[in-house]
């Protein structure tokens, strides 16, 4: 599956997140959304927006979409390669999205 075949909310999230736009990224999530990244979990929009702001300012990187798949009626996985100035310089990450009513209710990011 190509990135363009993903649900619109996921495409918009990836675009906003990759651009470092924390407000636009958070606006695509449910009020009670949960994000897990780097072994830490962030519950609710205020915590998620703080995580997004920190992630956007901590490192500089570019992304390449390596693939996407639908895992269920409301679940999608996107694999991206990040190249940047973080330890290791390159990493492939899986973004596991769960949608609820056209918004993101859960996101798990892991290698």
TrEMBL record:
Pfam families: SnoaL_2. It comes from Streptomyces corchorusii. Residues 10-98 form the SnoaL-like domain. This is SnoaL-like domain-containing protein. Gene3D superfamilies: 3.10.450.50.
